[in-house]
Each structure stands twice: as C-alpha cells, then as structure tokens.
Amino acid sequence: MERSLRKVLTALLVTALLLPHPAAAQSRLEAEDYAATFQYVMEFVEQNSLTPDLDQQKLFEAAMEGMFQILDPYSEFFTREEAEQFDNIVSRKYVGIGVEMRETPLGIAVTKVFRGSPAEDQGVMAGDMVLSVDGKQVADLGVGDVAALVLGEEGTRVGIVFQRGLELLEKSFSRRLVSIPTVEEIPLAGMDPVRAQKTMRIVLSGFAEDTEEEFKTLLETAGTRGVTHLVLDLRDNSGGYVDAAVAIGQMLVPAGPLVYFENKEGRRKVYGSTLERAPFRMTVLVNGHSASATEFLAAAIQDAGAGVLVGETTYGKGVAQYLFGIEEEYKLKLTMEEFFSRNGNKINGVGVVPDHVVEVPDLLSSDRRLYPGDVRPEVLELKKVLAYLGYFQGARDNSYDTLAVEGVMAFQRDAGLHVYGTCDFTTQKRLNQALADRLSKEDKPLEKALEVLWNRP
C-alpha cells in the first residue's frame, strides 16, 4: 500500500513538472513573460478548477485585489461599482444612512451622524460601534467594506446592529440620498455677547468639490459681520481633495509654502499661499480622526504662526493617492507621494501634535470584566475615561495598576456600586453613562480653544 501511494505521488509530481510553462527556463521572468504567465495561469485555472462559476473576469479581479493587498493600506483596486461608491463618498453625496465611520482598535465606530439623515432619525450616536450589517458580522472587515454593505439603492432597506457601551441596538433604515455639507457655521453658546459677535466657529468636515466656494462664502459673511476671531473645527475631518484643502489654506495662511509633496524619486512639488496676512486670530480643533489633507492644513496654520492647535494628535496619514481609470471598468487608487508640512516636518505615521492637548475618550465597549493586574488595550480606554471624569491621574498605558484600581473604587463609591476595584459590566455601563452625560453638556476642546483664542498674546 505504501509503495502504491508513493508511485501515485511521484506520478502526480512528474505530471505537474511536465506541465507546459511559457517561461520555464528562466529563473526570473521578463515583463512580457509575466504577462504571458498571468494569462496562462488564468486560463489553466478557469479550465481545470473545480470551483463553480469561474470566468476570467472573476479571476482577473481576484488577482488585482491580491496584488493591492501587498501595497500600503490606502492603495485600492476598484471595480466600476466600487469606484462609483468611492467617488460618492469623496464628493459627499451618496445613498446610505448618513453616518461617518472609522476603524478603531475595538472595531468600526460611528464618528459622526449627519443632520437630516436616516441615522439621525433613528437615534444613532457618535461612538456607537457597528457589529453587523444585514446579519453579516463586520469584526474582520475594514471600514471601506463596511461602508459598501451600508450603501445601496435608494429606497432599499438595511438592518444594522450597533453596540453602545454594553447595550445592543438593532436598527432598520430606508436608504436615501444624503448630501453632506462640508462647511458649516455652528453658533457659539454661553459666550460674552461682545466676544460672541466677533467670533465665528466653522466646522470643516471634508474637502469636496464645493468646499472652496462654501468656505469662501462663509468668510465673506464673517467679514460683513465684523468677525475678528475664528475657531476652525477640523475634528473628524478625514481629508478629501488636495486642491480644496490648498484653496482653504490660501484663504487663511500667510505667504509661503502650505505643503510639500515628494514622490519615490525624491522630486518635490510645492503648494503655497500668497496671502499678505492671516485674516483672523485663529484656533484650530483637531483630534485623532483628523487625517490626510486636514493634517497639512492644520500643520500649515501652526507652522506659519497663524493659529494655535487644540485637541489631540492627528491621525498621521501623510501620503497622497492618485486615481487612474483602466478602460471603463476599473480604477486604481495608488499611493504615489508623501507630503510634509510647511516647515518640512514629517506627518505620515506621526501626525500633527497640538499646542494644547485636550483628550476626549471613547465609550467603553469591552466584552469582558477588567481585573486588577490585567494588561490589555481595554485598560488604556478605561484609564482615559477615568481621567476625563476626574478619577485617575496616573500613566496612560495598558496596565491595570494600583492607581487605576483606586480610581475605579472611587467611582464605584460615588456611583453607589459595590466597591471592590474590579471594572465589571455594571461599572462599565455606569462609567459610559457618566461619560455620555458629561459629553452632552460640555466640549472641553472647544472651551480650551475659545480660552486660548481670547487670551493669547
């Protein structure tokens, strides 16, 4: 039996070695040989694989997706449908439910709910975690894949399960066309009336085709009203079109470079401003979700001394992608340049550090109790929440140390819970309730931005 099996295996091996190959004699193929080999492999697989419903289109698209998986995380291969979805997202017009999502260490999180959207109608909140879409679990999916599940034809329905703290929320939405404004003035409440009249807060949520004109119109309104102080809110702005971000910079940043782009050969391209002076005293709000073009705009304002940054270190996406069409069926989004700040500082993988750090934690969403002595990423999130609520002043790390235990016990005591230092599910739920209540009543980064704006020399 063993001898027969050996003969069969040997025959299979010999058969495999004798298969015709367009470039079998070469150890390293030339470019045209790779193309011929690729075509040969596709045909061979299509003709011989037992996998049902294979054709060359499916094999080609699978091969392209595999190729792009070894590139950087921002380069992508798009089919026509995927390209349309991407274009809609960048242009801020799409059929969906009206939320912005981000990948976090704990999963896909909702970071913004747009006004007048199906999501707002259903009570979705920033901080909600997406668990499943139409019954499909999304734990192993990227944010682009999750967005593709959420988007669809107008009038069709989509069911989504969210997690808010420890609570599961099942929602059903009717998809509709959502047009997302990228420039909004948000009124400032509770300020001294004289200062309020001279201050404007502009929320810039993205850089789309209409952003430049919308921003220009709002600045003209500011001039008409005699505004002298500006809070530019770039929190959760994930970027967009470079030209739009540059145009905004040219309205705010004094003469000089705005950003440097550099390709793999080291060739540099510079975008600059010719503005004589900054039109306002300015503070800029950023957080860990401020990314890409947002980062070079914030850095230009900071480097030029045109404004002060407040909030959290930005995301650190300092690379630019270009779109290329292949016939009418496909598009490539390829990272081809890295960009650097006005002063030449690296942004990619580093981010832009604000002048005044004010951190705002996310809601806890651990699926386990946290015990003294634990070393887990969830402990860091716990420490951030405790610190924000005034119960912790120690090192921000993954270690459930003595100070963290004392902070949990102090909170448990104040909340009327069993005081024993373990962060159980009840404690996590009460911490989330306390945090959500605090965040609904205050915006510490904005408060700091206004304080700096009116008190800086």
From TrEMBL:
Domain of life from the UniProt record: Bacteria
Keywords of the record: Hydrolase, Protease, Serine protease, Signal
Domain PDZ span(s) in chain numbering: 97-150
Pfam families in the cross-refs: PDZ_6, Peptidase_S41, PG_binding_1
GO process terms (BP): proteolysis
GO molecular function, a single term: serine-type peptidase activity
Gene3D superfamilies: 2-enoyl-CoA Hydratase, Chain A, domain 1 (3.90.226.10), 2.30.42.10, 3.30.750.44, PGBD-like superfamily/PGBD (1.10.101.10)
SUPFAM superfamilies, sorted: ClpP/crotonase (SSF52096), PDZ domain-like (SSF50156), PGBD-like (SSF47090)
Signal sequence region: 1-25
NCBIfam families: prc (TIGR00225)
The family this protein is said to belong to: Belongs to the peptidase S41A family.
Cross-referenced PANTHER family: CARBOXYL-TERMINAL-PROCESSING PEPTIDASE 3, CHLOROPLASTIC (PTHR32060:SF22), TAIL-SPECIFIC PROTEASE (PTHR32060)
Protein name: PDZ domain-containing protein
Organism: Anaerotalea alkaliphila
Phylogenetic placement of the source organism: Bacteria, Bacillati, Bacillota, Clostridia, Eubacteriales
